[in-house]
Amino acid sequence: MAPKIHLVRHAQGFHNLCQANSTIHDPLLTPRGKEQCTELQTNFPYHSGVDLIVSSPIRRTLYTSLLSFEHDIKTKGLTIIALPEIQETSDLPCDTGSSPEELAQEFAGKPIDFGLVKHGWNVKTGRWSPSKEAIAQRALEAREWLIRRPEQEIVVVTHGKSRPFCIARPLER
User: Fold this and answer.
1) Does the pLDDT value for residue 157 go beyond 50?
2) Domain ranges of the chain
3) Cα separations (Å) of 98 from 3, 45, 80, 124, 164?
4) Residues 6 or more apart in contact with residue 140 via CB below 8 angstroms
5) Is the sign of the CA dihedral 65, 72, 51, 115 positive or negative?
6) How much is the pTM?
7) Beta strands at 153-158 and 4-9: parallel, antiparallel or unpaired
8) Using an 8 Å Cβ cutoff, are 1 and 8 in contact?
9) What is the DSSP string of 93-148?
10) Long-range contacts made by residues 143-148, C-beta under 8 angstroms, separation at least 24?
11) Bigger pLDDT: 146 or 2?
């Protein structure tokens, strides 16, 4: 059976406040973004079924995952899997992630698996470039990876242009 996927856009980051902030490298969540995480934790109607959390390895998505699904992580012993294929698609500084070493240091002791985040994932060239072809290939690989997972209800915290929300829709095999 195909897993049910809940897509969640990251909460507000400092880059969302104004155009000039697009020069901030891998920005953090704003205080309002942290409030949005609390609201999502309170209002997300599918907590009982969640058995996997997958996140873009960009800091704002990782913090959105940790804060919005804190109860699921603690009570179910879940670990967030950082999946570089679902990173932001532009090469602006705000959409460029930190190195695996920086992420490992910042999130040390947090329930995040960085095993799929390899050196160069944040370089934004070749496989990781913002080209239409590279993005399409990464999207295909992410869908295939999700379909192969044994879990039945997966939260995917990633990027988009709208405000944080979730949807539940079966992923076709």
Assistant:
1) yes
2) 4-170
3) 30, 32, 17, 12, 22
4) none
5) positive
6) 0.92
7) parallel
8) no
9) GGG-PPPHHHHHHHTTTSSEE-TT--TTTTS-SGGGSS-HHHHHHHHHHHHHHHHH
10) 143/171, 145/83, 145/85, 146/3, 146/5, 146/54, 146/171, 147/2, 147/3, 147/171, 147/173
11) 146
Of the pLDDT bands very low, low, confident and very high (cuts 50, 70, 90), residue 161 is: low
The encoded tokens of residue 67 equal: 């804060």
CATH 3.40.350.10 fits 4-170, yes or no: no
Residue that has been written with the tokens 């856009």 in this structure? 9
H/E segment holding residue 9: strand 4-9
Span 131-144, average pLDDT: 95
50: tokens are 């969640």
Share of the chain above pLDDT 70, in %: 92
71-112 tens-digit pLDDT: 999 999 999 999 999 999 999 999 999 999 999 999 999 999
